[in-house]
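Page 47, continued from p. 46.
Same chain as before, 282 aa.
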Amino acid sequence: MNSNVGKIPSDSATDYYWAVFSIFLFCAIVYPIVSIFSSPPKRMFYYVYSVTCMVSAIVYFSMAGELGYTLVNLSTSTWFRRIRVVYFVRYIQWMINFPLVISSIFYFAGVSFMRILVTVFNIWLCFLCLLAAAMTVSTHRWGFCAFSLVGYACALVHTCITYKHDIQPLKRKAKIGLICSLVYFFVLWALYFVSWGLCEGIGYSLPIGEAVFYSVLDFLEFPVFGAIFSWMIDLVGMHRFSKTYLRSFLTDNEEAIKLDVISEAESPKEKEDEPEAQFTDS
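Result:
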C-alpha cells in the first residue's frame, strides 16, 4: 500500500504560507487601530477590511498547517500527469471576502439592499462553481469553470446596471472614485481565473508558484484595496457620496449642514421659549 496516499506532497509551500499569514494578521490588527482616529462613517469600512484580513489570516494559517485541502488526480483531464493539492479553504475565504468588498462599495454609493444581494449571489455562484471545477477529476471541470465565468459576467453586468441607476447620479468626483474602485475590483477578480487555470485547471504551476500567485492577488484585493478605498474617500470628500448613508452617522445638525448632507431648512431648530405673559391687577 502506498503510504503517501492522502498526505500533502513534500514540495508544499508551507513556510511561505506562514509568512503570508503573519502579514494578513498584522493588517487585521492595524485596521481597527486606524479606525479609532477616523470619522464614524469611515470607521465601518476599516472594520469590514479588518474582517477580510482576519478571514484571510485564518485561511493561510490552515494552509500553513497543512489543513483544509484535498488531493485531486488531474492526470485524466490535463496535460500534466500529477496529483494536485486543492485547498478548499481558499474558496471559503473568497466567498466571504468578495461579497464584503463589493457590498462596502455599493453601500457607500447608496445602492439598495436587493441590488447588493443579487451581486453577492453571483459572487457565490462564481466561486461555488470554481470549487466544484477544482474538485472534479474528469474534463467536466471545464463545464463548471464555464458556469463560474457566467457568475462573474452576471456580477459585472449587474454592476453596470447598478452604476446607471445608483452611482451615475452622484457628484462627478464621487462617481469617478467609485468607477476606479469597481474597475480595480473586477480586473483583479479576472486574474483569479488566470491563476486557477494554471494551477487547478491544467496543473501547470508548482506549489510555490501557486502560493505566490494567489497570495499576491489576495493581498491586492483585500488589505491594499481597503487602504486605497479609504484614501479615495479622503481625496474625493465624504460629502460627495450617498447622503442616505451619511445621515445614519451624523447626529449633529451643524456637522450635517457643513457636509451638505442636509440643508438648513431640513435642520430642526429649537425655538426659544417665549416668556409667559404677566398680568397685573388693574
